[in-house]
C-alpha cells in the first residue's frame, strides 16, 4: 500500500483549515450553541447515514465479503484488548469518582463517525468506507453497552438497546451492507444524491470540532496528566499494536489501513455527550477530546507513514 504523501498532507491541511474556520465562526457568534447542536443532529441523522448508504451501492466484489468479515474480526479483537488494557490502566491510575469510568471509555472509543468516515473515504475511497461501516457497527455495539455503563459509573445500569437499534447510523450501516451483498442497487440519480449529501460530512465534521475547541481555554488542554495518557494510548499505542499484529498476517492493505487509521483517531464526541448527560467529569471529557484532536494533526501523518512502510 502506498498512500501519496500529497494526499495525506492535503487532507490534514483541509482538516486544520476547516477546524480553524469552525473556531472563528463560533468566536464571532456565526454559529451558536443551538447551531452546533443542529449541525451535530444533521450529521448523525442525515448526512453520515446517506453517505453510508451510498457506499453500499458500490460494485460487488467477492473479495470484499471476506475482507468485511476480516474487518469485523480485527475490530472485535481491538475492542476486547482495548477494554481489557483500559480497565487495568483505570485501576493503576485510579481517577476519583466517575472520572475513572470516563477515563476508561475515552481510552477505548475514538471519533469513528465524525472523523473516521471522512478520513477513510478520502484515503481509501468506497472500499475504505465499507470497512469503516463495519468498524462503526461494532463501535456502536460496544459504545452503547460497555461505554455507557462505564461513563455512567454504575455497573448495574441497564443497557438501552432501543437507542442502539434505532440509531440512524446503525440502521443505515446494516442496510448498506445488505445492499452491497445483494443484487439490488439504487438508481444512479439516487446514489449521486446520497453521495452529494454524504460529501458534506468532512467539512461539517471539522467545522463542528472547531466549534468545540473554541469553547475550551488553552490551559485546559495541558493541565490534566490523565488526558496525556489517553492521547498517548489512543493516538500512538493502540495503532502501533494493531500494525505490529497485522504484519504477521496476510491481510488486505486497505483493511489494515482503514482499521489502523480509525483506531489512531482521538477520543470521540459521544464520550463527551454521555459524560455531560450523566454528570461524569464532563470538563475532563471535553478537554481530553480537544487535546487529542489537536495532537492527532501531528500523530496521524506518522501513523500513515508507518502504514506505507510496512504494508
UniProtKB/TrEMBL annotation:
Give yes or no: UniProt keyword Flavoprotein: no
Keyword annotations from UniProtKB, A to Z: Cell membrane, Membrane, Transmembrane, Transmembrane helix, Transport
Any Pfam family matching the protein: Mem_trans
Query: What's the protein's topology in the membrane?
Result: Multi-pass membrane protein
Q: May I ask which residue range the UniProt record assigns to the signal sequence? A: none
> Gene Ontology cellular component?
plasma membrane
Q: What is its main location?
A: membrane
Localisation: Cell membrane
The residues that cross the membrane are 6-26, 38-56, 68-90, 102-124, 130-152, 164-182, 194-213, 225-245, 251-274, 286-307
GO biological process terms on file: transmembrane transport
User: Which family is this protein grouped under?
Assistant: Belongs to the auxin efflux carrier (TC 2.A.69) family.
Name of the protein described by the UniProt record:
Auxin Efflux Carrier
Query: Which source organism?
Result: Parasphaerochaeta coccoides (strain ATCC BAA-1237 / DSM 17374 / SPN1) (Sphaerochaeta coccoides)
